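General statements about sequence and structure are easier to judge against a single worked case. For one protein, we set the task of working out the structure tokens from the amino acid sequence alone. This step matters because it turns folding into a mapping between discrete strings. The amino acid sequence and the backbone structure tokens for this protein are reproduced below.
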Amino acid sequence: MKTTLSLIKADIGSIGGHVKPSNAVIEKVKEVISKSNLIKDYFIFFTGDDISILMSHDKGKDSDKIHELAWTAFIEGTKIAKKQGLYGAGQDLLKDSFSGNVKGMGPAVAELEFKERENEPFVLFAADKTDPGAYNLPLYLAFTDPMHCAGLMLSPKMHKGFKFTVMDVSYTEEDKLVELNTPEELYDLAALLRETDRYVVESVHSRENGEEAASVSTTRLHNIAGKYVGKDDPVMLARVQGEFPATGELISPYTYTHFVAGFMRGSHVGPLMPVRMNATVSFFDGPPIVSSIGFCVHEGKLTEPVDLFDHSFWDHIRTKASEKALHIRQQGFFGSAMLGMNELEYGGITEKLDKLHPRFKTRVKK
């Protein structure tokens, strides 16, 4: 029997603005999940104002029952958030009722299904104040670049490389995907992944055995709601060791604190800061943050978590991210410090420009 890991995340209300969910809301979500007999194990945590539910079970990917369980937990949590007067209560729940799958309803979803190895370590990532494209560069480096992933040179199990499935998230009628094999199509992959607001890694598979190595949530909230309702705050699951990158290889690219979309009002650019589990946001509703937690799973049971960014080494990286955040904020709303018009399409700035455009007049040459 195969094990399925489902990581489902939503912002259902926060204290003091976009900062953190309340303890009461988190406890209500835990209460709903803990009473279910559908799952083998679970773990619940938050990153910024987002609550993430990790569940292990044997129902397979896209299980209606598992997704409904998460939806119900978020609905019940939202009720508490509304009673407490939390900001943005139910913000990511964009539909009125459950319709069989939380994908396309607001919550972010990443899932892996596999036959457990003798030992099965995996890592999850949860980001806040950014979008799914934030994982493009780390995945590119971790699975294709021996400067970060020495296993590409040293491990025979990784010699064949990896297959990337990339989604065009600007196409909203249905999922539009392309598969690229590395290292042969590395440059083609690079050409796509640089466009982080349009082309997003959905999954990565080993070419040695076809096993899925990584799964990324690709939900774009403005594509669902038709307007800006918050940044997408993506989650990711990745198997590690053996035929996959080691844990240290997978998290190595996060030392770059690369610039991503998000920050204040989801409309700016800021460095992605690796943070400890259950971290809040602060400066300019940010900076964009990502947490990383490691587990092993055996017969569907999870070990206790290990916080992969809770180490003195990452304090230095956080300082680096802080400095980068201050530098780009000095540029305010000018140029590359703010997102392009294609990402501001659902913001108030377009309304201002629509009013200004008729005032432009063609100068008549004398």
